[in-house]
Write a structure and sequence with these properties.
heterodimer; A: mainly alpha; two-stranded antiparallel ribbon; about 5% strand; globular; B: about 240 residues; alpha/beta; Rossmann fold; 4-stranded antiparallel sheet; 10 helices
């Protein structure tokens, strides 16, 4: 029972981590809490739902196309809603982000209706029993895919030329531009990557819980935001750690206390972290940036 | 011969504040030209305007005859201008080597970048020893050397240097100025902004004296160093 819950928490946590990465990367580079990020996650899930149920596509291509389409949407949103506000302080883009969030969820609500929709049977569900642990194929896929995506991201950020540019921009955009880095391009790329990761999480969560609805981005977004803050916002390993820890705490908490406490647990964590250690588990100390 | 850099009637505003009021000057190939003046005279603002971080309200900036005042900073780097910012501003979250690689961001030829790195290691052996260390762990002097080395990685024709001696011990200041002379001797034109007017005028060919956004004096470096007003205001003579 405990170990089965652990697997469940890990699966959920891996998805939180993927969403949290987008929050953290965007925050790291332009200091914006992208409140539309949860709706990007919802949109990614929607694309996969549409492709598998209407176009009758298999899940693997639907997954990749959903990631691609969502990153395009992320690019457009950045261009239209955030880039024009780049020089106008911190509050304006934040409000713009809330606007984008409401726009996306309302748009999908209009066209799809508010009800929850299930995915067609896209994965042949098998259960693996290891002693007393029960693991489903979906869980295996989700955890494996999340790990693969995070390793890929780590490779891009740590080992490639654009990754170097992203890290340089996240420290000092002005000096980065003096190095010949096209900062606008790097910011756009960051949005594209973050959106693709959120879409991946959206597809996997949609399939896992067999549910899509237009407002699904709201709670997932805030949970992932909590995960990003817990890990230290702006920190990539922090987002990964924060997501997994949050998923585990949430599931174990609701399994052993009461399942209706699930959201309360997450937000208690958010409040405690902000009070006690606002830089998060792995975040850089504020005073480091002189 | 066409000037490497020519600035004509430059006006820059910070909001309502008229920071640069019609400054004109030029830098010829192979020269070291220095802008000296008190804190707040507008020296850094001029450098930032040349490298595209600040847009001028009026005036022209030409690089070898081409107008660059509407080009974004990254484009100006590609055209051969490199800027060592005030206060070094290395990337502390990147290693020494990564800082240098980012400096070569506009270049694509891997082999040529390797050659430039070799040159840097020769000129700054201490950076080589600290190659894989995070730049944030370097001492102030080492960070200044790294900032200069990073700027050289784009193979600039014109190097803009903003207060490279700031906050360094006298011994390190000498080292920085020796480096400036060496870089210039190997063919890079330099525009140097300094509060340490004495040292700046020692290495420079020509200089301009800036006061509250205007050029009040100009001439070759020796003349300026001998000028009684300059001696009084900037070289600490009474």
């Amino acid at each position: 029972m405990f170990l089965t819950q652990l697997v469940h928490g890990l699966t959920l946590g891996a998805c939180y981590a993927l969403i949290a990465l987008g929050y953290s990367m965007v925050y790291g580079i332009i200091g914006l809490i992208n409140f539309a990020h949860g709706d990007i996650y919802m949109l990614g899930s929607f694309f996969a739902l549409y492709l598998t149920s209407v176009v009758k596509m298999k899940i693997a291509p639907a997954f990749l196309i959903a990631m691609g389409l969502t990153s395009l949407v992320g690019l457009v949103i950045e261009r239209v809603a955030y880039k024009p506000l780049r020089r106008s302080g911190r509050l304006s883009p934040l409000i713009s982000a809330i606007g984008v969030s409401i726009f996306l969820s309302t748009l999908l609500n209009m066209y799809m209706g508010p009800q929850t929709r299930g995915f067609p049977d896209v994965i042949t569900e098998l259960q693996v029993k290891l002693g007393e642990i029960v693991i489903t194929t979906t869980q295996l896929y989700i955890v494996a895919m999340s790990i693969a995506l995070m390793l890929l991201l780590r490779h891009i950020v740590m080992r490639t030329r654009v990754g170097q540019a992203m890290r340089a921009c996240s420290w000092d955009r002005e000096v980065a531009s003096l190095m010949g880095i096209n900062v606008d391009q790097i910011i756009a790329l960051t949005f594209a990557i973050g959106s693709a990761l959120a879409a991946a999480a959206g597809v996997m969560m949609g399939v896992y819980f067999n549910a899509w609805w237009p407002l699904m981005g709201f709670s997932a977004g805030i949970k992932a935001f909590t995960a990003a803050v817990l890990g230290g916002i702006g920190s990539i390993p922090g987002a990964m750690l924060g997501g997994v820890v949050l998923g585990l705490v949430e599931i174990l908490g609701s399994a052993y206390l009461q399942s209706s406490y699930r959201d309360a647990i997450s937000f208690t964590i958010l409040i405690i972290v902000l009070l006690v250690r606002p830089s998060g588990l792995l975040g850089r100390k504020i005073e480091q940036k002189v | 011969m066409v000037a490497v850099l020519s600035v004509e009637d430059l006006h820059v505003y910070y909001g309502a504040i008229h920071a640069i009021k019609g400054v004109s000057f030029h830098v010829e190939p192979g020269e070291i030209v220095t802008l000296i003046g008190a804190n707040g005279a507008g020296k850094s603002t001029i450098l930032k305007t040349i490298s595209g971080i600040i847009r001028p309200k009026k005036g022209k900036i030409r690089l070898k005859g081409d107008e660059i005042h509407n080009t974004p900073p990254h484009g100006i780097v590609s055209m051969g201008v490199s800027h060592v910012p005030e206060g070094r501003r290395v990337f502390p979250n990147l290693t020494v080597l990564e800082n240098l690689q980012v400096g070569a961001y506009t270049r694509r030829e891997k082999r040529e970048i390797e050659e430039s790195l070799e040159d840097i290691w020769k000129r700054f052996p201490r950076l080589r020893e600290r190659m894989n260390q995070m730049a944030g762990t370097l001492s102030g002097g080492e960070q200044q050397m790294l900032a200069i080395a990073r700027a050289l990685m784009s193979k600039p024709q014109l190097l803009l240097m903003d207060e490279p001696s700031m906050g360094l011990s006298p011994m390190l200041v000498d080292e920085v100025f020796d480096t400036i002379k060496e870089i210039n001797a190997s063919g890079t034109t330099i525009l140097l902004v300094e509060q340490n007017a004495q040292m700046a005028l020692e290495v420079a060919n020509r200089g301009y004296v800036l006061e509250t956004g205007e050029i009040v004096l100009q001439g070759n470096a020796q003349e300026l160093a001998d000028n009684p007003e300059v001696r009084k205001a900037y070289l600490g003579e009474s």
